[in-house]
Amino acid sequence: MEPRDTELERAIEAILMASTEPVEPSTMAQLLEVPRTRVEAACEALSADYASARRGFVLARVAGGFRYQTHPELAEFVERFVLEGQHARLSGPALESLAIVAYKQPVSRAQLAAIRGVNVESVVATLLERGYIEEVGRDPGPGNAVLYGTTRAFLEHLGLNSLADLPPLAEFVPGLEMVEMLENTLLGTLDPLEEAAAEPPSEG
Amino acid sequence: MEPRDTELERAIEAILMASTEPVEPSTMAQLLEVPRTRVEAACEALSADYASARRGFVLARVAGGFRYQTHPELAEFVERFVLEGQHARLSGPALESLAIVAYKQPVSRAQLAAIRGVNVESVVATLLERGYIEEVGRDPGPGNAVLYGTTRAFLEHLGLNSLADLPPLAEFVPGLEMVEMLENTLLGTLDPLEEAAAEPPSEG
Amino acid sequence: MSVTVTTSVFEGPFDLLLHLITREEVDIYAVTLSDIVDAYITELERMESLDLEVATEFLLIAATLIELKARRLLPGSAELELDDELLFEERDLLLARLLECKTFKDAAAALAALRRDAARSVARRAGPEEPFASMAPDPLERTGLERFLAAARRAFTPRESVQLSLHHVAPIRASVRDAIDGVLAAIPETGAVTFRQLTAGITDRIEIVVRFLAVLELYKRGMVELDQADALGSLSISRSDGDSDALDLTGLDEWDADVDLVDGEEDLEIDLDGADARDGDEISLEALADADTTVRET
User: Fold this and answer.
1) C130 CA to chain A: closest CA distance, Å?
2) A39 vs C126, which has greater pLDDT?
């Protein structure tokens, strides 16, 4: 392990304190004329310092950069103080569409609509307005549909460093029990009870 | 001397980190439900901590309040960062709205929303705050909507002498029918389908 | 045109159907297809006047459900056999779409949880103090004329017309049969493989769903054993004991859902500023109700 470079750490602290958004290690490396790896090591050392000294703030890695933010344990006090930034929450449909964009990007409006089964015009407008998604290109196929992807603001909003930090989609593929339930209800060929229940065409 | 109250200090650190303005001790005292003198003592203890640990930031007392700022010894790096390292940019939606104001001025908030197809409230607030747009009059029609236009600062920042220096719309706008559609939109013939697509007020 | 819609309508037909099927989780066998169809139609009837765009998908799914119900009420009936293959495809697709819907619903819930955690921290936004604050160049200056003009171009480009697919299913090229081959090849002779390993590197979720269906099919045929320690745990798949190497694929016809719908695809283009499309705003549910009645009378 290398010895700690206090002067480098101090410079990083000053820069991060002056920044309004996460600062990428490469930006700091360039400004401070040191290798990127040393910046990252210094940030980690600082972060550990703050944690062991039980500071009320943390040095977090978000959207590819480092930033100061309040310690989650103190949310109660901070919430009382700061009203800003508390965006209106997203509706269920908006959140589900955002999840689809996050995992399927780049994705067109039509693809999104096909998965959701409904028109997504207004939901896409909301997500664009909030800055969580943006145009990232055009479909090369006929129609040249606009393709959407998630933004830095999306990562910041979720407190993620990169898209790779999203939980893998495979985690959400429904469990066996759920599949069986859907299957039994829709297909219904396996279950004798079900077939018995089908015999009188009862009036609903 | 009283024993140090670590929990109080942590809460103060979090509040100061979240604030964009200096925070008065009386405000913190009220919020944290402790006497003002204890808040001041805690701030002084923190400030001494940072100094003895040679942090890159200081807890300064400014205009009656406390705030974090960079350590004067590191001014060189902060200056370099502010000049070169910051990526403060306007968001896509803000820039698009600004473009509409620039080309269509004077324009009302409702007209802007009609073209952008989304709520423009927060975007207009940002542009006003930055001084890129300003009120230039009132719509003579019903409602007397505020009309916006771009400012001198807008031109200066883009390196233009006058609005006449903006490339004409036709140069990059494809075809006449588009312009017609745009004019129709500006005249307020909102598309009914689009109204139908308004977001439901649901919350997931 | 003003449309009053319930939340469930706006969440879409798959959400609605999923909700109807899963709301009585206590006893899964207590829910019959008949109940679901009735409840679904009831929901549809509650939507008094439907926006064409919203209605189409709902109606297509209602039609599939009614078909399935009709098929169920006439077990072994010869007349329906011609349509069977098509119907099986439809229901497999419907199942796949429901699983997909559920997948993204859960993913959305996970995002919401991340967001809740993230919201407990507030980032420092104060920026630099003076004199540094006034040194910072203006954001617009950094933007430059070129990027500004690009934004203008975007702002003044007419928005795309909405593509409304008349099919309630997207073109799917994955076949359960192919997936079965793939799954079988991937299961080691001894030991188990997890579902995640089976789907490693697959990014298209419909492919994942089809793989899942393939695993289930193999399970039904007694060719593989499934083990899932807990409800959300990983699913491990191993070969059944005494598994004969001969795989009888002839019985797979029913499952051969090589559902490439590209040929039959008809897209209805609705131009946002075209007036024509609005004639069909009000969609009567009578036709559907009739179909339902017919089924009941049979």
Assistant:
1) 10
2) A39
Check: CB of residue C172 under 8 Å from CB of residue C261: yes
Q: Read off the pLDDT of each residue in B93-103 and give the average, rounded to a whole number.
A: 88
* Cross-chain residue pair B118–A129, CB shorter than 8 Å: yes
Does the pLDDT at position C165 exceed 50? no
Q: Is the ipTM of this complex over 0.95?
A: no
CB C152 to CB B67 under 8 A?
Answer: no
Q: Give the nearest chain C residue to A134 (CA atoms).
A: C154
Tokens for A152? 């830095």
Burial A24-53 (b: 16+ CB within 10 A, else e): bbebbbebbebeeebbbbbbebbeeebeee
Q: What angle, rounded to 10 degrees, do the helices at B25-32 and B36-52 form?
A: 110
Q: Is C29 at the interface with chain B, CB within 8 A? A: no
State residue A15's pLDDT score.
96
Rounded CA separation C174/C257 (Å): 8
Q: Are C72 and A199 in contact (CB under 8 A)?
A: no
| CB atoms closer than 10 angstroms to residue C266 | 7
In chain C, the percentage of residues whose pLDDT exceeds 70 is: 54
Q: What is the pTM of this model?
A: 0.65
Interface contact flag, C152 B19, Cβ < 8 Å? no
What is the C-alpha separation between C101 and A3, in angstroms, rounded? 52
Helix (H) or strand (E) holding C173: none
Q: C71 pLDDT band (50/70/90 cuts)?
A: low
- Of A154, A204, B158, A54, nearest to C114 by C-alpha is A154
Q: Which chains have 3+ CB pairs within 8 A of C?
A: A, B
Q: Which residues of B touch C3 (CB under 8 A)?
A: 196
Beta bridge partners of A57: A70
